[in-house]
């Protein structure tokens, strides 16, 4: 799993809200020594997808991300970043999440939006 490779940890999960952390280190930095925007997007999509997974699972469905965007508004060189995903729309087939990523001082690093589609499970899946 990519999240595991990047050191992402889910720290809190409840209906419609997921929080987690990711280290800023050689796995997640770009060549200039700052947090790679792609790593921020992985954190954002992981948090929202985890949230949708727990909702979809109760309905016998799978949650798959179909669109993610991100605005990178701050730099981080080391330490941890903290992500918080909150559901904005909880439809029958689509979820929309807002995700904020902040540094250890609480400064905004990235704001992201994720759209997740709920799809039927294939009968052969376990």
Give structural notes.
- This protein has a six-stranded antiparallel beta sheet with strand order 1-2-4-5-6-3, covered by helices on one side.
- With 126 residues, the protein is α+β, with helices and mostly antiparallel strands.
- A hairpin with a 5-residue loop joins β5 (94-102) and β6.
- 20% of the residues lie in helices and 48% in strands.
- The protein has one domain: Thiol Ester Dehydrase, Chain A (Roll), CATH 3.10.129.
- The chain starts with a helix and ends in a 6-residue tail after the last strand.
- It contains two helices and six strands.
Number of helices: 2
User: What fraction strand?
Assistant: over 45%
**Overall pLDDT score:** 96
CATH architecture: Roll
Structural class: alpha+beta
Following the backbone from N to C, one meets helices and strands in this order, namely: HEEHEEEE
Helix content: 10-25%
- Give the tally of structural domains: 1
How does the overall form come out from the CA principal axes? elongated
Distance N to C terminus: 18 Å
Unreliable runs, pLDDT <50, ≥5 residues? none
CATH homologous superfamily grouping? Hotdog Thioesterase
> What top-tier CATH class fits best?
Alpha Beta
> What would you report as the Rg, rounded to the nearest angstrom?
15 Å
Spatial ordering of strands, largest sheet: 1-2-4-5-6-3
**CATH fold category name:** Thiol Ester Dehydrase, Chain A
